[in-house]
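Allow me, if you will, to draw on your knowledge of protein folds for a short while. The matter concerns a single protein, recorded as an amino acid sequence and a row of backbone structure tokens. Kindly check, if you would, that the fold set down in the tokens agrees with what the sequence suggests. You will find the record immediately after this paragraph.
***
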Amino acid sequence: MNKEIKLAQLMEFFIKKYSYGLVKFQDPSLVNKKEFWLVKPDHYKYQLIRITTNSLEIRDYEKEKLNNIVQSIGVSLNREINFLDLHLTDEEVLENDDIDTVCINGDQISGVDIKILYPEILKVLDDKNNNDKSVNDVNQRVEKFIKNKIVESKKKKNPYLDKQYIGTNLITLLCVLVYVATNVVNLFVDNIIVADIITGAYYKTFIMGLGQYWRFLTAGFLHGNIFHLIMNLYALSILGRSVERQYGTLNFFKVLIPSMIGGLIFVYILDANNVTLGISAGLYGLMATIIVYLFDTGLIKNKRVRNGIIFQLLLCVVISITPGVSMYGHLGGFMIGLLISLTFIKNSNYRDLVRNSYFALIIALGLMIYFTVVEKDYKPLYGQTDIDVIEGYQKLGLNDYSNKLTIDLNEYYYKIGVLK
């Protein structure tokens, strides 16, 4: 193994595969030509890595200088950082080493098990997969890669056309289309509440009496007015893109949709009969995801970040207790989002918490299903609203469905003793 070439290949690996950046020192005397320093402030485990061909004996001799470098980089990043020291040497790492250390000799690795954190590193260590003849070959590839990244970053991307945010953009489009559809329906029925119910708003009477449980989902895409729509979509653009950027589109949907549904189930169980709509329960779930991310990465230790999130939480509480706002919906969305997001944690320090969060999710799901099934509080009833909805379907030309709705509602009213 040519250590100089392998050193450069590992540097290339961390830059390309895990988006680490090269640390450039103002004082070149701090480091030597036999090492690379790499930084990634938002990595969940190691924000700083040194790759070197120096022996552990040399490292122990210069440990004070090493600690000073780590501390200075942490200060410049304004956060506490975890440091990994990676050596290309045939030495063995001592168990009582106070620095997270890895020694690599060919395909043999001792010390911290980095194969779990960086599984593809084994390909780099296998000389059969590498045909580089010189360090210059690797350096040219890295320089080209970094230049392309810089050029790409300078291009102004339209966030609504960026595939990275496809989930946020699809939900935004859906909310806009549903809002337009609701207002088209309102042109015929001339009653916005009736139009909301027809297009899928949460309405306890229809869920409990007619079994329209799909409203737990559809209500999240409806909005009462243009201001409500704009404010929620603005929040979605910030929270949604942040979650998609850190966790991907699939996990974005894993949080958003269950949070929307969970929030409305909380309303169903804990609140009186009403008409509820809006994606805010899902937004509170996304907020919980961002908080989990801050703890997972250690960014919460940054005072500015911590104060910012505390302010946002206080603002969310004030909004939730405002008259006309669904406090239970927000609470349910946040709690479901929190439980789901805990399963995304990668920091090994929270391993028990991740495992327990799966059990908590199962218990929460079971309790929500149970209380949804046994819920019997149908009050207050809004008979005139039910009549208006029936007439609304007639105005839309859906007479058969209007007649069926009338029969089903009468049966439900007889069942609960309202009609005799």
User: Anything to note?
Assistant: The mean pLDDT is 88. The CA atoms of residues 90 and 105 lie 5 Å apart. The first helix runs from residue 3 to 18.
